């Protein structure tokens, strides 16, 4: 169990913080909610107190004998402010201590994550940009807002990311505080990243296909992690049915052939490319235009041909010598099989810079929130490292950045 201070500033997105609070509590954390005075205009004190089961104050004078303005920050494992308004960000950047939340921010020893939400003009304003830059320099992880419908008829960047996304960020930072340092440093800023995710489908006829069990979770975690670290991220997703990570456009594809086209186009201008998708290796030589019918009691023979090896094609098409290409090798463990050896052979065969090796199979990896990976490069192996896919995504980006700086 971790101690979290959930700061809530006065914006309409405060209602989403109720759902975030529920999620953090469901994960077993102790959460103290510290709203600002204006946050209570949107969601009242009784709601926060009832949901969290903890007292709720906005000022520094309540329960003064417990010195909450110092203790809450000192004892927290994570301070998460969602939504963080332009005003809260400005007060934090200038070191104001005019309510309980800003006092907590000044006394916290733990990672601090701010999730801004405001109108696009306010987010893009030079004053807010400067304040965010100051906070990031001081090690605060500021999550870029999502784009979409804002209050009223406007849309643009400024939406609070979905509570599930924020809860995932909180869990990752609690498990690995170093992630907040990477997020604050924005060490992927200025880099264009493309990630493929999911599993392709090869249609036999209009209703049936050959597919695989890839859930897209790893690709999603990679995209989310790269975005948090400041990269411009695109996802090419094969048959993944989940909401896009905040700030990441998703291009949907179906087959390995579609994936090859989309990835070739996207990779042409990308600095870092990760092939986390599980493309089908075989496709019907000719798909039927109509539903295949049973004929008597006989079976069905399928004539399959190999698909394009997308990763190998991307390696062959690479024109930017600094571009880093990362592949995955999902292998099934078996007696007498040396997975590391298989991985090394695959790295050499594909010609990519890094190969992320993981063991898959019944109940392993596909659809699971955790995994265990070893990152192979021409110079050696890092791992095995185990953890949530969100946490491992950061390990993969660390290795990818190292590979880029070694060029
Ligand atoms: N890959 C690809 N195009 C394919 C098949 C795989 O780009 N048609 C990529 C995957 O996205 C992954 C890497 O290649 O990054 C390794 O995938 P894997 O299925 O392990 O390798 P295969 O080349 O299919 O070899 P195997 O015979 O072991 O299945």
What topology emerges from the helices and strands here?
Elements lengths: L2 E6 L5 H13 L3 E6 L3 H4 L2 H8 L15 H8 L2 E7 L1 H8 L6 H8 L4 E5 L3 H5 L1 H12 L3 E2 L3 E4 L5 E5 L3 H13 L2 H8 L6 E7 L3 E2 L5 E2 L6 H12 L3 E7 L11 E4 L2 H12 L4 E4 L6 E3 L19 E3 L3 H8 L6 E8 L7 H12 L3 E6 L10 E8 L2 E9 H17 L2
Parallel strand pairs: 1-2, 1-3, 3-4, 4-5, 8-11, 8-13, 11-12, 13-16, 16-17
Antiparallel strand pairs: 6-7, 9-10, 14-15, 17-18, 18-19
The structure holds cytidine-5'-triphosphate.
Cytidine-5'-triphosphate binds next to helix 13 and strand 16.
What features would you describe in this structure?
The protein is an alpha/beta fold and 407 residues long. The chain is 36% helix and 24% strand. It has two domains: 3-185, Flavin prenyltransferase-like (Rossmann fold, 3-Layer(aba) Sandwich); 192-288 and 301-405, CoaB-like (Rossmann fold, 3-Layer(aba) Sandwich), CATH 3.40.50. The protein has helices at 14-26, 39-42, 45-52, 68-75, 86-93, 100-107, 120-124, 126-137, 163-175, 178-185, 217-228, 256-267, 310-317, 339-350, 389-405; strands at 3-8, 30-35, 78-84, 112-116, 141-142, 146-149, 155-159, 192-198, 202-203, 209-210, 232-238, 250-253, 272-275, 282-284, 304-306, 324-331, 354-359, 370-377, 380-388. An eight-stranded mixed β-sheet has the order 12-11-8-13-16-17-18-19, sandwiched between helices. Strand 18 and strand 19 (380-388) form a beta hairpin. The protein is elongated and about 80 Å long. The model has no long low-confidence stretch (mean pLDDT 95).
